[in-house]
Amino acid sequence: MKIALLGYSGSGKTTIVSALAGKRHESFDPLKPVLVSVKIHDSRLKAIADIVKPQKTTEPEITFVDFKGPQKSTGFDEKVIELAILQDKIALVVPFYDERNSVDELGSLYLEMVYRDQERVKNILEKRKQEILHGKRKKGWEEEILEKCINVLEQEKLILDLETETQKRVFLGSLGLITTKRFFVIVNGKPDKEVEQACQAYGLRFCYIDAQNFDKTQLEFFWNEFLKAAGLVRFYTIVGKETRAWLLPEGSTVLDAAATIHTDIAAGFVRADVVKYVDFVSLGSFSACREKGLLKSESKTGIVNDGDIIHIHSTR
Ligand SMILES: Nc1nc2c(ncn2[C@@H]2O[C@H](COP(=O)(O)OP(=O)(O)OP(=O)(O)O)[C@@H](O)[C@H]2O)c(=O)[nH]1
Ligand SMILES: [Mg+2]
What residues make up the domain containing 22? Predict the structure, then answer.
């Protein structure tokens, strides 16, 4: 799971990643971000492992893509935005310390993304209109949806907020836009009402990390908040010798979960047995959960909830 960190220089991106990874790195070239992978420790995985005693326990990993940030007055290079779009999630990093104005920085970051997309959509639409004018293209629903995007962006909202059908979402997703993705905010500092209100006004989820004074005993709390802000859930598998935690975007199905484990398992998917973490640790096994009626048998479309322990039945 790759998370791009976008924030102005000195917002603390490298300090955050270094605090989580336990060792310092540095990024110098804005176009060559440093990738740092960090394992997510989680007491639920440990509690499951204490029951099933597997030979191997595997934690999920987050890979931070740490860009050297620009000055606020300069703004982001287009190539950096393009690289960020390729990652699974994008976090906007704002500093809440010293004389930095977090609310102001968040506003600038957010608007940079919105204006960047606005210009891009306008260019795409203009090009299509020229092609239609010269008989190289037939007018379709695409032009209409692009007009709608411009409208949404002019209201300083994200394209993501536009209600639209899957086919149109797929089209919008193919245009290299950044506001088709729900980014979230990492506030480097202590909780603050004003920053929270600003995040809420933009419809962005947020989490905190006081990076320079990071207390390792807060690690689990941080990851829980981080994953919620990022819109990720954790599910668990107990297969053979290995007990493992996995990450998935919230709203994913058990078929998505199967595909995360292995494409073959998804291809041969029959059904999934699902128990909740709390039920499993209190009853001690899948069979005890089944006896109590706490095991759910899910088809492909069942939604995965955070903390689900999933056993996938597959023909492969
Ligand atoms: N007081 C305080 N200073 C911090 C904090 N986090 C970072 N700093 C300081 O801010 C400066 C920049 O931090 P970095 O983590 O390098 O910032 P960055 O976002 O990686 O900056 P670029 O790589 O230039 O984009 C460093 O001197 C840090 O010591 C913090 O939480 N509190
Ligand atoms: Mg840095």
Answer: 1-231
